[in-house]
Each structure stands twice: as C-alpha cells, then as structure tokens.
Design goal:
It is a single chain. The chain is of the alpha/beta class and 392 residues long. The chain has 2 domains: 167 residues, Rossmann fold (3-Layer(aba) Sandwich), CATH 3.40.50; 192 residues, Phosphoglycerate kinase, N-terminal domain (Rossmann fold, 3-Layer(aba) Sandwich), CATH 3.40.50. The strands form 4 sheets. Strands 5-6-4-1-7-8 form a 6-stranded parallel sheet, with helices on both faces. A 6-stranded parallel sheet has the order 11-10-9-15-16-17, sandwiched between helices.
Length: 392
C-alpha cells in the first residue's frame, strides 16, 4: 500500500518544480556510461513537462567529499538529457547560491535546468538546514523521485521537504510498491536469494526476511561465513570472522528455511584465469578459495525457485565479473526470468548481473537503488520516503 502523495495529486501548471532525481551514473571519458537511472526518471520528467511545469533537477554524482571536483560534474548528464528530450535542458554551475537562483528564476514552463552536483557542498550529507532552505527557495513544489538515496537523510531529499509541499515521482512510487510486495504481502511461496561478498551488511535483512520468506538461498562470498560457522575449513576464501557467531545463531534459528550451497567452484587464485575445480561442500584445500556456487547447487536452488510465487534477489552468487565464475549467477538469473513468479531484483551488483545476462526484460522489477532496497528488506523506515507528504 502506497500512502504518500504523488505528482498526480498536485497541480503543477505554471509552477517551478524542484525534482530530486538519481543521476548518480557512471561517467566514462566524460560521457554517460550507463543511462539506466536517467531512463528511469523520464516518466516523471515528461509527465511534469506535459502538465506545464518548469523543472529544476538536482542530484548527486559519485563521492566528491563535499568539495567541488569537476571529475564529478553533472554537466555531461545535462548534455545527455538534452539529447533525450524535446524540451531544452540547461545546466547551472552550482546547486545553491546566485548561479542556481538565476537559472531557476529565468525558467519558463516546459524548460529544464539541471543543477550541479549537490555533494559539492558538505551540507548535503549532513542535512544542513541552511543548504536545504537554499535549495528549497529555487522551487514551489518538491518532487522526490530519487529512490536510490531514499535511505539517506540528506539536504536534497529530507531537508527540502521541510520547506515545500513534497510528493513522490513515479519511480519512487513504483519502487516502493514492488519492494513493499516482498516485505508486506508476498505471493507465496516467497523465495529469497541472497548473495554478495559480506554477510555483515545483510544480517538485519536475513532476520527480517526469516519471518516472511519460505526459503532463503545463500550464495556468494557471504555463504563462506555460514559454511565456516558450520565447521568447514575455508582455505583462502573470504570469511568474515566477526560475523561467525551471528551466522551460527541464524543457522540455529532458521532451520531448513536457510539453504546453503551443496557444492562449490574453487580456484587457486583470485583472477579470471585461475585453475578451477568443482567440489562438494566440505573443507576447502589450503591455497584455494570459493568463487562460485557449483552445478548441484544451481540445480537444488533452481528446483526451489521454480515453485515460487514471489522471488526477491539481492547479491550475486559468485565473482560474476570473471566469466568462468559467472555460471552460478547467470544460471539462476535464467531460472528466475523463466519462472512465473513476481521477480524483484534489489539493485546493485545483482541488477548489473541480470542486465549482463541479457534477461532484464523478463524480470518484473529491477530496483535502481541497492542500499535503499536492502534497507526495505530489513523492514527499516526510509528517511527520504518518510519525508514525503501523506495522502489525506
């Protein structure tokens, strides 16, 4: 249930609308390398333009650490967006201060300005009230469509909302509706696939999902910590020693709802051309490390996945960046894509892997926010979402 106001609940005709988008995209040689997040914002942008608004877009990009660093400038994104839209897109060399004020004031309905990187100011990450007020002064209505930063309380998503009527854009609404399905009312059986390198970042999610999921399938580097907690020697595999006690406790309480790999692909070095062998789960030989789940695990996990009504996936099954250790991730992606279940991929590496496998079109929903989607799986309140006005 989405109980927040959206852009469809307000009149934007002739108004200056400040929109927080997530244009944190990779730049390669000063050009946009992947436009997934830009494309995801277009439905909101085009709707607002069609309804007579003048748009002031703001976003962060990368980690410039509160200082102006042109390596992280949003200018290439403004140029790229200008090529995508019929509306003129200009660029302001700052997000607050005289340049931003001037750019916003001169806008006509149907025009767009993209402000410079909000993280060029230290006040962004500290949710500085002064910075939030300066940003808010540029518009008359605030639209938060940046799901990717909804788990952060920053000046450009939470701070602004204290000064302006605040509604959600279409992307924010879509993300919350789909991810809400996994945490509130999933169609059973609910199968969760969790991978990635570290278990420590997903402990809260596992605890929360154990109360909601029928099975949690664990792969990737995080499985090593659970396997060591069961008493296996892990050779040179990545293991989080600090999380072993927690892993033991989770294994004890979860019973057979938590499923670990039954075989493993081990390598004698962490590189794409390493020697590899497939072994049943057991002690990993010294000098070797687990880099993927094995074929028997793919089969065992696959049998569970095809029974699912809802599938939630966060994190790859192995080092998919190396083609020879991508089989686990890509094989499960194929099974998920071919299933009849509602399938939700939680951003980050798992989203990248599914896109790389060429199966993205067959997934119900791929989230644009790794950190935000993980916090939703934990059952946490997202500050960026909480700051949006409630429906009366």
């Amino acid at each position: 249930m989405f109980n927040k106001k959206t852009i469809e609940n307000i009149n934007v005709q002739g108004k200056r609308v400040l929109v927080r988008v997530d244009f944190n995209v990779p730049l390669i040689d000063g050009k946009v390398g992947d436009d997934t997040r830009i494309q995801a914002a277009l439905p909101t942008i085009t709707y607002l333009l069609k309804n007579g608004a003048a748009l002031i877009l703001c976003s962060h990009l990368g980690r410039p650490k509160g200082e102006k660093n042109l390596k992280y400038s949003l200018r290439p994104v403004a140029e790229y967006l200008d090529g995508l839209l019929d509306a003129p897109v200009s660029f302001a060399e700052d997000c607050i201060g005289p340049k931003a004020k001037e750019a916003a004031a001169s806008l006509n309905p149907g025009e767009i300005v993209l402000l410079e990187n909000t993280r060029f100011h230290a006040g962004e990450k500290t949710n500085d009230p002064k910075m939030a007020q300066q940003l808010a002064s540029l518009g008359e209505i605030f639209v938060n469509d940046a799901f990717g930063t909804a788990h952060r309380a920053h000046a450009s998503n939470v701070g602004i909302a204290e000064h302006l009527p605040t509604v959600a854009g279409f992307l924010m609404e879509k993300e919350i509706r789909y991810l809400g399905k996994t945490t509130t009312n999933p169609k059973p059986p609910h199968i969760v696939i969790l991978g990635g390198a570290k278990v420590s970042g997903k402990i809260k999610a596992i605890r929360n999902l154990l109360t909601k999921a029928d099975k949690i399938l664990i792969g990737g580097g995080m499985a090593n910590t659970f396997l060591k907690a069961k008493g296996y020697a892990m050779g040179d595999s990545l293991v989080e020693e600090d999380a072993l006690e927690t892993a033991q406790e989770l294994l004890a309480t979860a019973g057979d709802r938590l499923q670990l790999p039954v075989d493993m692909v081990v390598a004698n070095a962490f590189n794409a051309d390493a020697e590899l062998k497939i072994l049943p789960i057991g002690d990993v030989p010294n000098g070797w490390q687990i880099l993927d789940i094995g074929p028997a695990t793919i089969e065992a996990f696959g049998k569970l996945i095809i029974t699912a009504g809802t599938i939630t996936w966060n994190g790859p099954m192995g080092v998919f960046e190396f083609p020879r250790f991508a089989k686990g991730t890509f094989s499960l992606a194929k099974i998920v894509a071919e299933s009849k279940a509602i399938s939700i991929i939680g951003g980050g590496d798992s989203a990248a892997a599914v896109k790389q496998s060429g199966l993205a079109e067959k997934i119900t929903h791929i989230s644009t926010g790794g950190g935000a989607s993980l916090q939703m799986l934990e059952g946490a309140v997202l500050p960026g979402l909480a700051a949006i006005d409630d429906l009366e």
